[in-house]
Amino acid sequence: MRRSVAVLALLVLSGCAYEPEIVPPGAATGEQPSPPAESESPAPEAPVTRFTVEGCPVDEPAFCEPATNLANALVSGDSEAVFDLSWADRFDCEGLDTEIFPQCDHRASLSGYAIGTHQGEIYYQRANVYRNTLGFFVEAVDEGFTDDLGSSEMRVLGVSSCGAGSGRSYHVVYLVALADPDNAAFAARFLGTYELVERDGEWVIGITYVGQYTDWQLVMDDPLDEIACGNTQPWGT
What we know:
CATH class: Alpha Beta
Strand content: 25-35%
Helix content: 10-25%
Radius of gyration: 19 Å
Structural class: alpha+beta
CATH architecture: Roll
Largest sheet: 7 strands, mixed
Low-confidence stretches: 1-44
Shape: globular
Distance between the termini: 46 Å
């Protein structure tokens, strides 16, 4: 059964695995696809923005290196590199607000990788499920999508800084248009952030916040301006 992007996002954020049903050419018959004719030449790839530590908009060298690696992984569509930068957590549910952690309604503890929604809910996923989640949100870019916010490619908008001292965190903010591989008729604009926190002396992705842009508009007057802690600073050149 085909699923729209909205339903697909709901399944992902509810903790279900997303497994695209993409069959390579020849897989059903065991045959290998024919190589392209010698006269054929591959289409030129669009240039990819490369981010540098020097252009990082935060005066925090220990943060800027992993944040730069994250930004480059996003625009390169490298979900495995994003996974490697992510932190798995584990803690008891006792005393936690179930409006923020809905899974604590039926669990004694939470573990895994955190996914946040536009409503402020946080869900935890096992490693294999989280990998599938990233595979969609990082790699399933709809190349033909356009809207009032522009074209579809992954765009890292910059960094939003939150808090101070030991409780500070930074959000790498991005825009992208994604398509459901199971249904070419569905595509949507997504806005998200990767919140980096300090754990064991390293800056890692603590929570991945993501949602359709129209969903963010339900809770914010201007999502691009208000996302995370607001005042997103762009990468320098």
